[in-house]
Amino acid sequence: MARLADYFVLVAFGPHPRGSGEGQGQILQRFPEKDWEDNPFPQGIELFCQPSGWQLCPERNPPTFFVAVLTDINSERHYCACLTFWEPVEPTQEGACARDAAARDEEADEGGLGALSPPAPGPPDQLFAPKTLVLVSRLDHVEVFRNSLGLIYTIHVEGLNVGLENVVGNLLTCLIPLAGGSQLDSGEDGVRTISLGAGDRQVIQTPLTDSLPISRCSVALLFRQLGITNVLSLFCAALTEHKVLFLSRSYQRLSDACRGLLALLFPLRYSFTYVPILPAQLLEVLSTPTPFIIGVNAAFQAEAQELLDVIVADLDGGTVTVPECVHIPPLPEPLQSQTHSILSMVLDPELELADLAFPPPTMSISSLKMQDKELRAVFLRLFAQLLQGYRWCLHMVRIHPEPVIRFHKAAFLGQRGLVEDDFLMKVLEGMAFAGFVSERGVPYRPTDLFDELVAHEVARMRADENHPQRVLRHVKELAEQLYKNENPYPAVAMHKVQRPGEASHLRRAPRPFPRLDEGVVQWIVDQAAAKMQGAPPAVKAEKRTTVPSGPPMTAIVERSGGLHGNSARRLEVVRNCISYVFEGKMLEAKKLLPAVLRALKGRAARRCLAQELHLHVQQNRAVLDHQQFDFVVRMMNCCLQDCTSLDEHGIAAALLPLVTAFCRKLSPGVTQFAYSCVQEHVVWSTPQFWEAMFYGDVQTHIRALYLEPAEDRDPFSVCGGSLGWGMGGPGSRSPVPLRQVGEAPPQGDERSALDVASEQRRLWPTLSREKQQELVQKEESTVFSQAIHYANRMSYLLLPLDSSKSRLLRERAGLGELESASNSLVTNSMAGSVAESYDTESGFEDAEACDVAGAVVRFINRFVDKVCTESGVTSDHLKGLHVMVPDIVQMHIETLEAVHRESKRLPPIQKPKLLRPRLLPGEECVLDGLRVYLLPDGREEGAGGPGGGPALLPAEGAVFLTTYRVIFTGMPTDPLVGEQVVVRSFPVAALTKEKRISVQTPVDQLLQDGLQLRSCTFQLLKMAFDEEVGSDSAELFRKQLHKLRYPPDIRGTFALTLGSAHTPGRPPRATKDKGPSFRTLSRNLVKNAKKTIGRQYVTRKKYNPPSWEHRGQPSPEDQEDEISVSEELEPSTLTPSSALKPSDRMTMSSLVERACCRDYQRLGLGTLSSSLSRAKSEPFRISPVNRMYAICRSYPGLLIVPQSIQDNALQRVSRCYRQNRFPVVCWRSGRSKAVLLRSGGLHGKGVVGLFKAQNAPSPGQSQADSSSLEQEKYLQAVVSSMPRYADASGRNTLSGFSSAHMGSHGKWGSVRASGRSGGLSTDVGSRLAGVGPPQANGAPPDPGFLRPQRAALYIIGDKAQLKGVRPDPLQQWELVPIEVFEARQVKASFKKLLKACVPGCPATEPGPASFLRSLEDSEWLIQIHKLLQVSVLVVELLDSGSSVLVSLEDGWDITTQVVSLVQLLSDPFYRTLEGFRLLVEKEWLSFGHRFSHRGAHTLAGQSSGFTPVFLQFLDCVHQIHLQFPMEFEFSPFYLKFLGYHHVSRRFRTFLLDSDYERIELGLLYEEKGERRAPQACRSVWEYVERLSKRTPVFYNYMYAPEDAEVLRPYSNVSNLKVWDFYTEETLAEGPPYDWELAQGPPEPPEEERPDGGAPQSRRRVVWPCYDSRPRAQPDAISRLLEEMQRLETELGRPPERWKDAWDRVKAAQRLEGRPDGRGTPSSLLVSSVPHHRRSLGVYLQEGPVGSTLSLSLDSDQSSGSTASSSRQAARRSTSTLYSQFQTAESENRSYEGTLYKKGAFMKPWKARWFVLDKTKHQLRYYDHRVDTECKGVIDLAEVEAVAPGAPTMGAPKTVDEKAFFDVKTTRRVYNFCAQDVPSAQQWVDQIQSCLSDA
Q1: pTM for this structure?
Q2: Dihedral angle at the C-alpha atoms of 1452, 1457, 1460, 1464, nearest 10 degrees?
């Protein structure tokens, strides 16, 4: 029995002591006056009576009632029922308050807030003060409290003739039963009728079970107020320990909402702060750091806004606000959605019927109270599903004297398949769940509804999942039970309590609430107490039972393992492999091993492995030989590798006894156990794992204690090891219970530990004291012995075999954290990720063995402390343990030393033989092979990706370092792939990034040091060093690699050391008789140049390599003089022979032979002789002014300048430009005679001078002004040297610039608005579009027309430089400012492109999407788009007759790219092999692109990194090549070849930064001078030439150029393709660009072939990414050429060169193309299709050998051509391609004649000349008989039928109806009409016979 009410308190309003306006509560009276012993009086009641503060009121309010909850220090809840009513203020009180209020009023007036404050009450105004009656109780009977307090109030107000003291006394002495469940048998004892002695009667019903919460209607109200989703998120928030705050204007609502939320959490109890009604004075509680559920009046909403981590539920508004920083994990699916749908069915039953045509007439809507129980039933079901099987994961650690229970969280999550689930993880870690385990884990206790549900109903819930009606029925059943629990006797619920009359509160109360007589009340209470003492104590006889465990758990969702669904087949493989190992069939086992390692990714396979190994452990010890040991260890490592630190599937637990069982004998007396080889796993360093293991073992032993010996024979569930642990060696270990935690026991009759414990708890009270003591002691010693055992076990797995290698500890999170705080770097993610940099202070960097021992001892001690205190081990025992642990560790270290020593002496396992790579002539090995594993690099193909194919990687082999390359050669580790050699290599010079990594070796699963090398040729070597490679060898490899990659001087590069190695031995040759040698010549040249270089040059120059700095230079003044003097000394009229010194003459002649000069002469830009004799007719001349490289060191020696400019003026002009790179002509259009110029960007002052105001220069100008004046003259000279194109009828600037190129923004707009870089400024754009400024005469500009006067010269400059520049007044030149990207942007973009193409690690989400995303992020294609766009713009301007000066950055990066692309697009010559070479030599090499600087060739350039400017240019060429495959003589392979070798440093061509530097090193002219013995190619061009003679690899068979065609490619990103140079690789032989190395696999020698027998098949399997496809299957033309050569050799003729054969075929073709000697010659592959159709035409796949012919129609709609036209173009090119394989006769015309043909839909009939060709199986038609170009082809292979036809509209009138016939093909029906019936018949017969022949 319990008291209904503990205290009755009367609280009234009292003035505030500090005189502020608010009052405060005062306790007037409390009964009883002294505290109950079992229940002290709660503090702070007066705050909770008026949560919003005590205030006076101007009018009398109706009485209010609510229940506040106070929690005491023992976390007991006290319910305070408060009934508040208002009484008039007494005069004394009133006076005080009036004064108070007046004072407040004045203050407010001063503050200007008078209007807001209440008026001061005058005499007539009456104020009312609140007074509260409070009942304090530990029981939650709200209605009874309401009635009782109401009764007291009624007696007072209505003045009933009842003594209030009696009522209060009765109330305080009223006793009621606690829970009705136990007294049901004794009649209606659960129902108690009480009367307070005022003629009233109340029935109190106590709930049947105490543990179920009572909710009345609160849950239903909560759902009504907030809705389903909101309540669910509040539910999850409360369970995952977030802060929840309720707001409402009603206090009763707040306490209901809080009660409802708590009721939903059942069976978990909320254990944090719980304050349903928080008083205003305590609002700061809200900023507490702990979780809470609190209710606050909505008036204080503003304070709630400031809280950052509180979830606010507004009950009145129906909203729940979750702050951004708070993440509420949702319920795991499918529970979330299931719960949601059931809740909606309960709350809105009409929802299901809303769509019915004939809804049932009435719906039975549950009452609110019933609905409340239904909602709770849904959540009860939810918990049963969530926690199903939880009892299988309980560990009974102790049974006596009190049960100690632990929950195995990891096993629970693993079994349920919810390891990843955030929600359940947090719930299990929370306080509520800990309480749940300690309360409900007890095996022998009273049970309730939840226990029944979770044990017996789970199967039913699972079966009902998809049947909503059955679910609803179940919910209703549960709801009935919950309702019954709250209202056990609905029939007797009758109350009779007086209530006050209507509006009684407004009547003038006769008197204030009287003071009660304490004596009377106390006397009544004492009387009752005395009576109680006599009565026997009412003991609640609880009915305790064994708690049912229910079925074992299952996963919430049956998840298939996806990729590793463990089929029986996989498990079979695992079993077979293990039996092979133990039977000694090692070869068989080796074959199966890779499959086993793959299968072990799945959980079932790992468990199968543990079980199989268990069967092989005999007598707890299995001695293996070395190979067996190796296999077993490998498999164990693989199992453990995928175990997380939690070990959720118990795999590590199952293997733990095995690793101390398997061993091998190393030498007499030294045995190595498996644990020394499986330590590198994160699970061993996780304390949680060891605790779970320990408790599991303790449970097994304690269970064994209480079972009869007869039951103790099952080896699986009972540990058979003895309990006294010998220290001799890891012999007497207990095997693991292989049954996983959480699974049903194997036999039905076997009792679980919980059953045993339950039985023991039942018997405990019956045992004698001695017996009890004995049992407690036994249990304690069991726990103690297990602790010793575990200390041993932990030392085995934590102490490394080689204690000097303490890497293990460094990388272990668990141990690291013990060391020091600085170790926070340590990661504890899955085995593999390792913190790369370690703090040396953490004591691990060079940790001695003692440090390791110390760390392990501390780790074990911490573990021992925790588990022993939790399991109640006595302190003496614990001290003993602490003494033992260091000894255990020390002994183990000593044992390990012997093992380590012996294991080093083992003969190494036979490793595969190292394959030596093939080397180039002159290439030498620097470091011999280091054994490594090559790991997959994130590209999917090599590792057997989505394309299928074998897993070539990981491969096992060695890495070699040569003077030229880094090479890996090896074999795949998967023996099933076969004997494929895997080669991956790249030039040392291409290395861009090297980083150390730590990775797992694919075979042993050990953590090894590794190296990741990334190259700019798109190869990545991700290697793990074999354990035999010491760290010093790896370090040496890195150092050597670094030395080769960045030689201190360019002379150290491979191209320059090659061939010079054997020269020093020879005596120098005498060269006197031949005049000065080239060597001396270049020396002179350099000397002169150095003399003449001025300091102004050095100071102005930004880029300044060290070799150029010369300290002793003349002063600037002398310098000036010297230059001018040297210029004066050469009269321009003299002939070269007399003017130049002999050495200079040699320079001149050698300069003349340079590429530039040959090209200038081709373009008609003048020859040297004419320039010296000043042929005035030529507008330009070749000036030798820079022959000593004095003016501009990065320019070539000979430059094209305007005829009218003197050499001495050039010096001054050059000063205006960056790097002195003044504008020079580099190309002239043969048609429009416009010229293309290039220069560096303008210097600031030059710009200002150039575009100054137009007034004449004053005499006293500074030098800067004069130089800019010269510059203006210079540009003027360029303009005037052009033929005039001023006539208005000329092609306008941009009229031909189709919008396809410039996007939709108008002609210039897209340059301006494309991507990030903006483009042209608006004024230039508008002027180019012809909307010029108003004319000089004031006439408005004519808006409709382009300005006829076009600028003669456009200057393309950097927007940033040209800011504020005034346009030229005469409009002869015009500025086009564009934004360009800088070199660093190219560098950054390239880095991202590398990462996208070769990620380095597998993508998180495999598939094309992630590649495309990272490709887009790199912005590489955007940069290519911009380059092509600007180039096409320049091409247009040049084509329209305006000259263009490209003047960007320093003039050697983007300028070079643009200028080269413009020439390539404009001039067909540069699209030949010879022309392209010339273009690169002229624009890139001679004009000083800084190859060495951009390629970071030397140590000095290391910091600047690799910037692929030239590669970007090649990519642009590749894009153009793709769009115009017939315009280029070279194949795409040629571009890749240059892309590879411009960084490889194999050739000297691309070394150094300018001609000047090449001369200085003597590289430029030596090839000519001295012919040595045949030597390796120095120049890439020479190499290409030699190779081209042997093979057509660089030649494009589709080359059929149009005369003088200007190409205009599409530049939109959608038209660009990723260059396959970036993505393809050939693992069979490495990159195919070193031709000598890539000669394919050798044929097997004769004797290996099976003699006799069937002829060998010629089929070969071609694997993507392994074989070179073009070599495996060359294209048709290469095939024919090879065949010809082979036949010629067989015939004994000397084989003809491929080029000659090809040219002969083409020539023959041209002759054949002339039928009847009329018409134009149709040369092979030529067609006059307009540009955009040809660009689609025929695509040839290219490759190292020739090209594969494949006709692909790439009709991109953006190309503006319709699909039909592209089809037509393709058809045309098909027929032309065909023509090469024609027979000897001129053309196959089997039958021909005129037919009418009906055009396609809506087209007229037309007469055409038809030719039936039986050879090619075609019906061709022409416009006229003489035409050679056919209009169309009908392929007879597609013809289905020929049938008589009928005339249609528009048919020829005069023809007979029978002359019509139709030819039906798969695509369409052709309607034909012959001239008469017989000819129609003949056509039909001919076509039919042609069809039947086929």
Answers
A1: 0.59
A2: 180
